[in-house]
Amino acid sequence: MNVMKIFIVGVIAVAALMAGCNLAPSVARINTDPGGQAAKGYDTVAFFAKNAAVRGNPAYEYAWNGAKWFFSSEENLEKFKANPDAYSPQFGGYCVYSAAQGKLVEGNPEHYKVIDGKLYFCNNAEAKEAWEGSEDDLIKKAEKFWAEIQAK
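RE: above sequence
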């Protein structure tokens, strides 16, 4: 009988531990490099203001959403601070094309596009080319995938 009690207590303990564990890997809300930089250090405001991928300067750093954001000027830093959601890339900076395929792949700021006031990154030129022409449909698929993984 003691062996049975020990077994039951053991099963309950393991079940309690498992209930507190998330076995699926967590997904970072913002894609960052190992140093914690978002957008690989690019100035995300510049994509809108200059329609260009411009490297940020660590002198203009802002911490938001668990990441370090760099800007090329004080003006761009202040714009971001005033409305970070407007200037941060969609899907946390992950590749929109890959997200539409149900995968998380690092986005590359050099392969970007602004659509309807929103910034999107692709992983490479091939992904961007595959995405273009079907943006609306693929954005909807990526939004669905992103919502699912954020809910986990």
